[in-house]
Design brief:
mainly beta; 21 strands
Amino acid sequence: MNDSSSENRLDFTGNGTLNINGTISGSGTLNEGSGTINYNNSGNQTVAGTTYNHLSISGTGVKSMYNDVTVNGTLTLDGGSLSIGNNILDLNGNIVNNAGSLRGGTTSDIAISGSKGKVSIKIDQTSSTTCSLNNLNLSRANGANLSDTLELDGILPLQTMQP
């Protein structure tokens, strides 16, 4: 992407999928509309810190978030793993876990909000015995299911929500 604001923009106009086998760089705008961004490298990759409609993780290796990521639609884990790192993963939609994984750690935060149904979360173990996050913020009326033991090193704000 160049440095001119009119040239630093990629707009989706439909429901397509943009497969990224490399890296998104620069300071432009990625507007995927109703589409999907799929990080599909067969090795490690950096996931741009931005807001996605649908985000898909496939291929192999670790896909590391670079800054905070918001997913308004579906986060699909088809292969490899999405590593939150020292960032916030904000989930406003659903998670579909086919063959991938979600990695957290003692500096990783997850925020679950939006009006979708109950979401199921499984965090990869950071050691042989614990799955950990820093903060887990749940503000979805339909709640969430944790499918494994989770260690929180920060806060779990409990809010009264009306379905």
